[in-house]
């Protein structure tokens, strides 16, 4: 069952809203990307590169979030802080200002702490660390996580010396858990694996296309982590 979409801190921010209106009216150059040798992290974000030119604009992220099952207002509010944080980190020096587009080639520069370690510093998938997610945290079923277990995993991976990195895992895992967990609240291993290479987004887009649902499931554990 679908419930109300969550509220985000970025909602109602007039500065970001104005920047979005500015950026949404732009065209932009392309960026080279080695498709055959993309890292898992590059594959993860490339779902949102809707025209496959190596650059993700705010409007493309909004389109991608809507495609996986959220309404436009939620997608806009979700995309704003993502681009404000990752755009400057991944943009080359000669990229058009204000550097809000995300360059897939440099996405590893935007990696944050307090994560699972299933991606290395270059964004490559680490199978052993992925398996640790389930060996350490999957208590009810060996092949799935409950909301509580996702919450425990996020807390266990927090870096006490880097509190600024705590929010990102909550936002990322919360969104995908809310959309991809089953009706009993289980987040299955294949869906979790699909986060790292972006295949879960493709699956969610296909499901939305067939159901025409446009409201995100409530992220009930978000505010309690």
* Main sheet properties: 2 strands, antiparallel
Bin the strand percentage.
under 5%
Task: Kindly name the structural category.
Answer: mainly alpha
Number of strands: 4
Number of helices in the DSSP assignment: 9
Distance between the termini: 23 Å
Low-pLDDT windows of residues: 1-12, 217-225
Mean pLDDT: 84
| Shape estimate | globular
Strand order of the largest sheet: 1-2
How many domain units? 1
What is the share of helical residues? 40-55%
What does the radius of gyration come to? 17 Å
Order of helices and strands: HHEHHEHEHHEHH
Can you describe what's shown?
The protein has about 220 residues and is mostly helical. It has one domain (about 15-225). The protein has helices at about 15-25, 40-45, 60-65, 70-90, 125-135, 145-155, 165-180, 190-195, 200-210, and strands spanning about 55, 100-105, 145, 185-190. The strands form two sheets. The protein has a two-stranded antiparallel sheet with strand order 1-2. α6 (about 145-155) packs antiparallel against α7 (about 165-180). The longest helix is centred in the middle third of the chain and has 19 residues, at about 70-90. The chain is globular. The model is unreliable at about 1-10 and about 215-225 (pLDDT under 50).
What key phrases describe this protein's structure?
single chain, 225 residues, mainly alpha, two-stranded antiparallel ribbon, two-stranded antiparallel sheet, 9 helices, 4 strands, 4% strand, disordered N terminus, EF_hand_dom, signal, EF-hand domain-containing protein, calcium ion binding
């Amino acid at each position: 069952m679908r419930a109300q979409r969550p509220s985000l801190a970025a909602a109602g921010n007039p500065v970001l809203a104005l920047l979005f209106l500015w950026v949404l009216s732009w065209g932009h150059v392309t960026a080279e990307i080695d498709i055959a040798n993309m890292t898992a992290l590059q594959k993860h974000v490339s779902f949102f590169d809707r025209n496959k030119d190596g650059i993700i604009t705010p409007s493309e992220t909004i389109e991608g979030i809507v495609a996986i099952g959220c309404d436009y207002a939620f997608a806009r509010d979700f995309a704003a802080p993502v681009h404000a944080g990752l755009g400057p980190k991944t943009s080359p020096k000669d990229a058009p200002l204000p550097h809000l587009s995300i360059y897939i080639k440099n996405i590893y520069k935007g990696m944050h702490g307090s994560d699972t370690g299933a991606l290395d510093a270059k964004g490559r998938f680490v199978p052993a660390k992925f398996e640790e997610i389930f060996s350490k945290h999957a208590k009810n079923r060996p092949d799935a996580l409950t909301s509580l277990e996702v919450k425990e995993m996020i807390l266990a991976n927090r870096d006490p010396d880097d509190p600024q990195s705590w929010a990102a895992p909550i936002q990322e895992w919360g969104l995908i858990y809310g959309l991809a967990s089953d009706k009993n609240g289980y987040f299955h291993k294949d869906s979790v694996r699909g986060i790292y290479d972006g295949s879960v987004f493709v699956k969610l887009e296909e499901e939305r296309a067939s159901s025409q649902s446009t409201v995100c499931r409530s992220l009930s554990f978000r505010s309690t982590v």
